[in-house]
Each structure stands twice: as C-alpha cells, then as structure tokens.
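Board notes, transcribed. Complex of a protein with zinc ion.
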Amino acid sequence: MIEIERIPVLSDNYVWLVHEPTSGETAVVDPAVAEPVLKAADAKGWKISQIWNTHWHPDHTGGNAEIKAATGAVITGPAAESAKIPTLDRTVAEGDTVRLGGVEGRVIDVPAHTAGHIAIHLPGEQTVFTGDTLFAMGCGRLFEGTAEQMFGNMRKLAALPDNTSVYCAHEYTLSNARYARAAEPDNRDIAARLDLVTTLRERGEATVPTTIGLERATNPFMRADSVEELAARRTAKDNF
Ligand SMILES: [Zn+2]
C-alpha cells in the first residue's frame, strides 16, 4: 500500500510524493521546484529514487535537475516530449510500465494539453496521476492538441474504476466548480460539490485528490456527450 504526500508549491501547483514502504522507494510526480520537495521528503524520512513527469511544462519539470543532483533519482517522462525535457533518463508511452518497488503503474497517453502528455495509473493502488489533463471538475487547456483528443482522454479516464483516486497537478477546483454550475445548472451533484468546495477553500483546505466516480458525476468535460460539446465547454470555460 503506497503513501502519498501533497506538496503545495508556486501559486496553485500540487507536487505528489509517492512512497512504497516495502521497498522504501519514493517517486516525485511533476516537481515544479526542488527545495520544498526535498524538504518534504526529508521530513517524512523518505529517499527520493524516481521522478515522474506527466508533461514538459516548466511548472511540472522545473525541479528535475536539482532533485536528481541531490538524490540520484531516475527521471521518467513522455517519449513524445523527450526533446523538451532534456533531464529525462527514461521515456514511456501508452501501455508501458513504471515500477515503484512492488507497485506497477501503467502509462496512458492523454495528448491535448500538450502533444505528448501522459497519465500514470497504478491499478493495484486505485490511483491515477493525471497532471494537467483531468482536474477536479475540469480539464486542461488545449495548448497543443484538439477537443477530439481531449474527448478521447476523458473516455479513457472515465473507464477506470469509480473508486480510483485522481491526483491532478493544480488546485483549480473552485473556478472549475463555478463553471460546472453554469454549464449544468440542473445537476444537483454539481451544486452540492460547489458548496463543499467553496467551504473547503474558505478554510484553506485542498480539494484534491478526487475520484473517477465523482468526476463522472460532476465534471462537465468528462460528462460531455460529444466532441462538439466538449469543445464548446472548453471555449466557454476559457472565457468564463
Ligand atoms: Zn501544463
């Protein structure tokens, strides 16, 4: 059973420390920066042995070099973005396996936010790391891909078991929830979640992780019935 530690950095990024106690291995997912990550690992008594990048954006890879220099961690990231992440040691794509001690992860290609974006699913741990593709009540902006690709990503992720915990890379939930309420004004699950998220954020608490089941009920992008509907919602949210 893995343990996962949330490290809030920059204005709204979450870096995730993933610890597998049997082997003692620890992976960092999407280190925007190094120092708070190294400190958090030290505080837990965990030694970082791997870094997993979901995509090339600097707020997901900026800590790679310094963490590797400090720990010797092996860095794994998307094959299609290797030219943009010069610190990568290993490149992976759809269907490839990543291992953290005895825990096995499966790589899922989820292009659209960036052209080579990946998610990492740990089926035995009911956990998926989705970077900037699936957010709580939202999805990533379409910087390097199409609505059709993002629609396919949402279908792939929606097919994971409902009890799968979703660890995304930003605290965007309140803004997403406000848009979701506007997109689906009759959806009572969305209304209730907007209330909950508002309360949590007023208290300064995190709203991530979420679950696939919760997203299937309240995420207007995962709930879009067609590419056209997702595209219209993405444009509307960009201007919300
Ligand atoms: Zn990004």
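Residues 3-238 form a domain with the Metallo-beta-lactamase; Chain A fold (CATH 3.60.15.10). The pocket of zinc ion is lined by residues 55, 57, 113, 132 (CB under 6 Å).
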